[in-house]
Each structure stands twice: as C-alpha cells, then as structure tokens.
Amino acid sequence: MKFIRAVALTSAILSSNAGIVRVGNARFTVITPQCIRLEYSPQGQFVDSPSLFAINRDRRDTNYRLAQKDDQTIIDTGQIRLIYTPDGNSFSDKNLKALIQSDGKEILWTQSAQNKQNLGGTRLSLDDRYGRAPVAKGLLSRDGWFLLDDSKRNIIQDNWLAERPKNSGTDWYLFGYGLDYKSALKSLTAIGGDVPMPRRYVLGSWYSRWWSYTSDDYRKIVKEYHQHDFPLDNLVMDKDWHEKGWSGYTWNKKLFPDGEAYLKFIHSENLFSSFNEHPQGGVTPVEDHYSDFMSAMGEDPAQRQVLKFNAGDQKYITNFFHFMHEPLDKMGVDLWWLDWQGDKHSFSNRLDWLNEYYFGQSKQNGLRGQQFSRWAGWGDHRHPIHFSGDTISGWRTLKFQIPFTANSGNVGAFFWTHDIGGFMGFRNGQLLTRWVQFGAFSAALRLHSVKFSFLDRRPWTYSPEEEEAMQIAFHLRSEFFPLTYTHVWQAATDSVPLIRPLYIEYPRIKEAYNNPQEYLYGDDVLVAPITSSGRGPQKIASQKVFFPTGVWYDWFTGEAYQGPMTKTFFNDLNTFPLFVRGGAPLTLQPYTERMTTEPLKTLVIRVYPGENGIQKHSFLYEDDGLTEDYKTGGSAQTDLDYIRNENQVSLVVSPTRGTFKEQLQERAYVVELFGMNPQAKVTVNGTETISQYDSDKNILRISVPTQTIRQSLKISVLD
After folding, report:
1. Cβ atoms within 10 A of the Cβ of 481, count?
2. pLDDT tens digits for range 545-583
C-alpha cells in the first residue's frame, strides 16, 4: 500500500520535515519503511554528523503517514507503526512501542523486548580459536526486528574522527522487516553506506605465508604455480619483507635486494602484490624516511625516538601515510594488509577508524577503495574484504567457518576470507583439501599459514592425490569466476551476500534455518563443503544437503534432485556437494591461470535441464575490475534466458548493454547443455549447426565463433 503523507500537528510535535519528526526531546527519522532512527536527548541535543556506522545522514524516506491521537504521535511507514507517548522521560515501554508487519500479522516491539531468535552476526576475529566461537547478534532475526544501538559510536566531523556531544543521549535504529530479510539488509546499507565492490584481483587465488622468502623465492613460486597448473592472482608479502620488527616500511635488503624490480616482475606476470603491516609499532629509526617523518612532526631525528602510533592524530597519520606508504605505493604495492593493530587481545587506536581511513586512502588514481583487515564492527561493511584472523587448524574449525562466513553477511560483511587450512596447527593434507574446496566457493581462495616449516600450504607439497583434488577445486574457482564476479556486483548493488544462508531466500521454510552446513553461492549454486575426515583409500566423507524447491543437479555426477528434500551424500576426495539449479544459465569461462585478469574472449554457458515451461533468467556482469567507474555507468551486462518446452530447448543471449574501459567488443561462445540427445537438431540464429557430444559429461556442446557482443545469440535444440 502506498501511503499519502498526512500530517496532523499539535503543540506536542515541534517539527516534521523531510522524514524527520521531533516531539519534545525525542526525534524520529524514517530511513526506509523498514528502518526508523530513534533519538532521545534530555537537553534536546541531537547528532546530525555521520557516525562510523550511520554514514548516510541524508538518507530519508518521506513516504509515511504521521498522525496525532490524543497525546500519542504515530508514525506509520506501512511496515512499522511507531507509537510514542511523551512523558518527559527517556524511551521506555511506557512511552514507546512499535507494531511491525510480518506476513499479515503484527509483531509488538518495545525497548525491553528480547531478540531471542537472532540469526547471529560475526565477531572481531577468530584469532587463537579452535572450533566454535561466540558471535555478536546480527541484523536478521526470526523475531522480525532488530534494534541497533549507535549511541556510543564516534562521529565524523570535517572528515575526521570526533567525539559525540556529551549529552547526545539515545541513538537507536529500529529495523522492522518481518521475514523480508533482503529488505533489512537493504535498509542497513541505506543508512550505513553501500557495500563497495572489491577490486577483481582480490577475489582470485592468493598465496600467502609467514616465511622469510626472498624475491627469488617468490619468482620461483610463480613458476611453480604454472608448472603445477594452479591459477594465481595475488602474492602476499608477510612481515619479513621489511626490516626487523613487527612494524616496518623499508625493504629487508637481504631478502629483497631488488624490491622495485621484483614488483615490476609481479606486474609483468599479471599478478598483484599485498604487503603486510603492523603500524602500531610506529616509525622507527631504521626506516629510509625516518628523518623526513620526524622533521615533519616537528621532532629532532637525531634523538632517534619512536613516536607512539596515533591514528586519531591527524598530523601523525597524514605524515605516516605520506612518508611510509606513498613511496611504496608509487613503487607498485597494490594492497596493504592491515594486520594486528594493538596487542594480541585488544584493538588499540580504533580499528574501525583505521579501516575507514585506510579504505579512503586506497582510492588513489581513480582506483576503487580496497581494504584487507579484521572486522571492526557495525559500519565496517563499507571496507571489504575481511579475514577471520589466526585460527587453529582442525576439522571443528573448518566446520564452524561455514556458518560463520554465511552469517557474517547478516551485518553486511559480504566478502569474508579465511586462512585456508588454518593459520597454525598440525599438517593435514586431507583437511587442507576440504578447506580449499570451501575456499573455491567463497570470497577469495587464500592460502596462509604461520611460520612453521611443515605448514607450507602449496598444494604440490602434499601427496599426489591431495594435490590432484586441490587442483580440481582451484580450476573450478577459475572456471566459475565470471559467475562469481557477477554475484559480487549483485551483492554490492542489491545488498545481498555472495554467500547466503538458505533462510535469506527461503525465510518461511524451517529447513532453511536448520542446515547451517550449506549455503547458496549467488542465486543458482548450492554448496555444502565437506567438514569431516574421510575413510578408505578414496577418503570418502559425508555431508547432509537440504534441497530447496526446484530441481538441482550434482556438478560432478549430473544426477538430479527434486526439492524440497534432504539427502546425505558421500564424496571422495576429488568431489564435494556442489549443485546447480536446473534451467539457470551459468556464466563460466575456460580455465585460465589468471582468472581475474584474462579477458573473457570465450563465454562458456552451461545449463542443466529446467522444469518444463518455466523460463529462467541470469546475466553476466563486467567492468574494468579496478576503478570506481562502475558507479557512474562504466560497466556492461549481458542477459541470458533459457526455457524448455517438452523436447525443445531455447537459450537466448541478448546484446550486451553498457561500456567500460578496455571492453572486448567481440567474443566466442561455448554452450553446454546437459542431458540432451547426442543426435539433437541444433540451430544457431536460425541456421542448423553441428554440435559435439561429450559422453563422459553427458553434455551437448555447441561452439559459436567470435561475434560482436552487440549481437543477440539464439540457440535452439530439438531433442
């Protein structure tokens, strides 16, 4: 229902303007139909500056109904009906309540109500954790509402961190959404800011290890990835790249005598570099630019003192970036990894502000902002990507990371990565293999480990069987990358996680809440990673899978399963429960060692039989992968539509819409249709065409030569 704004004012209402209603010492701001800001200040001092969470102060919804009934003020958004009865006191059950719509029913909310069915959020990190760890509450709850308290968060004034006014009082955000979880997440980003797209290379394959590698060692590793046929996109320099100590910004000349030449080599290989830093140690006298930094700070370099790192000091942090970061950025460092900031069990110097500041500083030369850090609380969704810290390796840790990653989306942390294999612990090739399979269908496939000689995560240092199984998963990551990147854009645009708990798509089905071992990867891929040790020579392990409504196909066997149903699967080391929705055109690419930079010269479209007469739609999203041009139209989309009518199949690829830098204007297509008659009649744009049948995969393969992307493509198959 569309509400017409009708205002009936009395002396109790001081003002009502553009989504803001003030009643005495209370103020209410309608953000969206599912979110209202609730403020109470005894002195009437309200906060208009953005906070580290609520960055979009201009975001308001004026399409609500405001009414006065006796001494009550009623704000009705259609989703939330807020009733306030001023009594001269702070918010309480006596003066404030809300009725929230949920499937035709009304949920009563009061400030003392308990959010008992909260679906969980995330935590700062999983450092030193083995197995499960408690997490804070998230936005989504089966109660149909969530109250976010922003009363104590710092604000931003003149682009810098500031304290709130002392008497600013209560600052709450009431989210009321019923079972419409997607609207809740959309409301979160409406006030808290959009989740930006990561740079494309961070979504690929990373090699990271805390080890005293030399520049020649890294060159050798690049060569090994090629020799063993594994894709690679990002090489990480852990702390030993710089001079002694946890903090440092000057090359360790013994390990990197040719730092700048090394970075040129990395870029010549179409790779990217990420550099570890622990800035809390400050700027020490060993730094090349120590004297320049100290002079800029008004200190005598000859004293060789170390000024304590202070992210809240604008002069300090400005000079710190200018003299420590900028020379290396100009040399070719692509990404800074902000590691522990403070001692091992606390965050000093405000990680939430550091992530905000670092992300802003990374927007140089038109690049999209990029951060790699631990989670720093509400609002940090604006600074992807996040990693879970120094976990302890083990099956229980891997098992917990599945729901932990999926539920992290409930606070807007849509792109979460882990130390694949676990940061520390014993060497276990089977465990690493299963972790890699999970990583292949997460935000990034990032290997990492502590400085133990036996914990090298390079797959070819394990048994041939384990290496082969990991290679299959790495190749899948590469082949699925166009689909992955499309759903990364969808996450940023529609505020829906890349990795989704089933309840986001199926909130009314109880099984969607009872199967945390699985998740949706985008719209049409269902993943249930193996999280237990297998038995026998083939390392057979089991996992339970619940299938939502529709027909789902096993990626490895092609077997079909009609949902809703639950089944336990038994997989050897080379496979894991990976299913795709019938009828959904999957946008893939031929395997490439550089999945994030190789131009998409050939689009592979695979479709498994859909339900008869039901059309399915998907699309391919593209942009330059590095800049913020996508925010102002620098992107392209290609729509795909599939339908099966009895024994006839039709697939239409629409002309590509939109442009971006270095966009290919032509491409070839390979269409793979599962389960078709090898003798089926195939036409491409009305002309009969010869197809190939892959008996091993039961796939009818149709190759279409290179054509302009502005031309439509229609494949028709009569079985």
Report:
1. 25
2. 999 999 999 999 999 999 999 999 999 999 999 999 999
Helix axes 429-439, 395-408, angle to 10 degrees: 10
Tokens for 456?
Answer: 């090298």
Q: Going by CATH, does the domain composed of 13-192 fall within 3.30.428.10?
A: no
Q: What is the pLDDT of residues 673-692, one digit of tens each?
A: 999 999 999 999 999 999 99
Encode pLDDT of 409-429 as tens digits.
Answer: 999 999 999 999 999 999 999
Q: What is the pLDDT of residue 542?
A: 98
Distance CA 272, CA 270 (A): 7
Q: Determine the average pLDDT of the residues in 125-147.
A: 96
CATH 3.40.50.150 fits 200-500, yes or no: no
Residues carrying CATH 3.20.20.80, the chain? 200-500
To the nearest whole number, what is the mean pLDDT of the chain?
Answer: 95
Q: Which burial class, exposed, middle or buried, applies to 93 when counting CB atoms under 10 A from its CB (0-12, 13-18, 19+)?
A: exposed
Amino acid at 147: L
Enter the tokens of residue 552: 């789902």
| Domain 502-581 CATH (choose: 2.115.10.20, 2.60.40.1180, 1.10.510.10, 3.40.1260.10) | 2.60.40.1180
Main-chain dihedrals φ then ψ at residue 444, nearest 5 degrees: -155, 145
**Cα angle, residue 321 at apex, residues 316 and 324 outer, rounded to 5°:** 105
CATH topology of domain 612-718: Immunoglobulin-like (2.60.40)
CA-CA distance, 446 to 207, in Å (whole number)? 6
- How far, in Å, CA of 717 to CA of 646, rounded? 11
- CA 596, CA 234: separation in Å to the nearest integer? 10
